[in-house]
Amino acid sequence: MGYGHQITPDEIEQFGEDGIPEAAPTLDQFKEQIDSYEKLYLEMEQVEPVVTFDTWFRLDCKPFKAALLNTIKRWSLLFKQYLIDHVTNSLQGLADFITVTDAGLLNQVQEGDYQGLVTMMAHLMAVKERTEATNTMFEPLKQTIELLKTYDVEMAEEIHLQLQELPEKWRNTVKLGIQAKQQVAPLQANEVANVRRSIASFELRQHEYREAFRKLLVFRYDCSTPYEILDSTHLAIHAMETELAKISASAALFEVQIPDFKQLKMCRKEVRLAKVGDRCGVVCLF
Q1: What are the record's GO terms for cellular component (predicted)?
Q2: Burial of 279 by CB count in 10 Å (0-12 exposed, 13-18 middle, 19+ buried)?
Q3: What 3-state class would DSSP assign to 58?
């Protein structure tokens, strides 16, 4: 279901460890597949359950025919149920999202309330990330419901009600997001400045650490305590990586561009290489 077609060995070899990118099947593909099972079911129904060969050999296929028809119907229902679940889960997921997000966007963030600001920015980011998909989801869902009707599958009244009400509720959520963004704009600007200062400070410290790192005795052949130095270096780099993760999270939340911090990544890479080189040396001794 996740790829829209049967995976071939060539595709598996082509994408390798990266994995084959998912591509959901289209509604036309679902219709084609369901129609093929419906047609096959009708054809199998016409098959005579009892056949007589040469006037004396009587073959009773009733159990086989019943099992075959049941299998065909189950495959048809599998695709129909997938569409039913897709419509139901999409609408319910949006309804739950709107309920939680509206409650969050209506909160007033006071100056100095950092956690409140972070929560508000998370809601605003969630609305932004969901906007494109939500704006285009309603028409395909209506088409899916219409397709299911052709197979005598009726959705619950609650689904039809959600399909009528949710577009307006979603537009209201977007409006609340715009109002909330305007309300927290001054607080956001202050926090953006703080994040940029944190980035600049970390940038300077990573360059300073890189210079100290390159002078470590562990990279000399006559180092007498390589394991102790590697352990302490790992802990120092890990602490900086943890701090960087927090800065990156804040930067993403407040939409601040963050540099690549290549110096820190080089330090981590060289520590790993030093450990790998040591292991290779131990293996060679044996």
Answers
A1: dynein complex
A2: exposed
A3: strand
Q: What is the largest CA-CA distance in the chain?
A: 98
- Tens digits of residue pLDDT in 126-154: 999 999 999 999 999 999 999 999 999 99
Residue 1 has a pLDDT of 54
Residues 16 and 88 in one domain: yes
Q: Is the pLDDT of residue 199 over 70?
A: yes
Q: How much is the pTM?
A: 0.73
How far apart are alpha carbons 41 and 69 in whole angstroms? 6
d(CA 85, CA 83): 5
Tell me which of 42-51, 75-84, 95-104 is least confident: 42-51
* Residue 278, pLDDT above cutoff 60: no
57 occurs within a structural domain: yes
Residues 162 and 21 in one domain: yes
Q: Say if residue 39 is in the same domain as residue 85.
A: yes
Q: Which residue has the tokens 């970390």?
A: 202
Give the pLDDT band of residue 228 (cuts 50, 70, 90).
Answer: confident
Neighbours of 29 (CB within 10 A): 13
Domain that includes residue 236, residue range: 216-285
4, 29 Cβ separation under 8 angstroms: yes
226-253 and 114-135 helices cross at what angle (nearest 10)? 70
